[in-house]
Amino acid sequence: MPAPSLDSTRARGAFLLLGSLALCLSNGATAHPAAAWLAPVLLLRFAVTTSPLGGTAALALAGAVASYVSMLGVIPIAQAEFLVTCVISGLLGTLPYLAHRLLAPALGSVAGTLVFPAAAVALAYALSLASPFGSWGADGYVQAGFLPLMQFAAVAGVWGVGFFVFWCASASQGLFPPGPRRGRFAFGVFAVGFILALACGSWRIWRAPEAPDGVEVAALSTPAGLPDRFFDGCAGRDDSACRDAGAWKRIDALFERSAAVAGTGAALVVWPEGSAQYDAPLEAEFVRRAQAFVRQHGVYLVAGTLRIPVDPAAAMDNQALVFAPSGQLAFAYRKAVPVPGEDIVAGNGEIPTLDTPFGRLGVVICFDADFPARVRQAGRRGVDVLAIPANDWRAITPLHGQMARFRAIENGFAVVRAASNGWSVIADPAGRVLAASDAFRAPGGIATARLSAAAARPTPYAEMGDAFALGCLLFIAAALLVVLARRLVHRRRQATASA
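Above: the chain's sequence. Below: its structure in token form.
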């Protein structure tokens, strides 16, 4: 009795169903690394064995459902806008599959397998430039637990990590029976490239120095028992006495915890985004107190601050104030990219630096770190440690903190991410987690670790930026031109033959 065909209607339905289920677990709040590899394998098999129109419609629906499941609560927009976003995401998600069907057969077995991953990377990169959410949703982030593969981000950014996931899907199509011999050869080429990437990544991790002689750094979360806003519980936003009391309660708790970690040897203390909250008249007194604190304890302090006007219609001022042990206010960095819907005074995005005994220190705030090209300026300026005051919500924890590890690998510096709510993490330039604390599981937790200035290193990504992603865009454009040129030549030959 002959074996059932993998191109039968039942088989195609199974590929679609299983692929769609895996796709729901391939990104966002529900992400699982294995599902991210499996989903494109199954869905691409469905796509190449189904009619273009019906297959595209089914893939668009699967993508829209997966976007809803995986991004529910992650994207901070109204429900109606979220539904529209999911539909658009589903439609756009079909483009790499269509590109594979259109272009891959004309390019040969090996080059043809590059169409799907190149199209996926080109799409993700283009969306990151056009979307207000930056690199959110990039498939490479899901592989945050696959440390050897993550190292490829030092060359190609997070885009390069996602490339291997999609290359595996297209290369593996030749393994489905009755796959031709050239299909197995194409998978072999992928396997060699993948193994080389893992070997180089493992070597990069192995040669990353430990920091036994480094300095202690600490990332605080908001002390337990404090409200999200310093005026919560006041009779009204114009109750100045209550607002002042709430502001100093927060500030007192932050300095108390900072003194504790400074007493155990911390040389750098990073506060979360917007942790010190006050009205404008209190800022000068807060600065004086911070200056006295760093002089007394001999530490560098990155203080996340938030000025919240009494008028709820006025914009907030979200800054990180950096103090040196001398008492100098070294610089103030204003958050440059507001989360959609966040009403703040946006900064110019230039990342200032400060030379310290443990290396060059730079600062960005939370959402700023989701834009790789913006953070790359820190890598080009020789930053050794990037402090990231942050504030998350439960649906993006720990995903948002994991994204910061890619910035460390891409630019060759350590990151100290202090989250008011969410996942605080200290990671070295190889993306290794040295310490972490989840404020949702342990409110008021503190992450501490040792960092060494010798661990920082220049990276190709810091110099070349998103050249790999741009190369994927150019590859797809060139492949499209090749296919169009061949079809034009074929039509002319037909016309000549029939003349």
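The mean pLDDT is 93.
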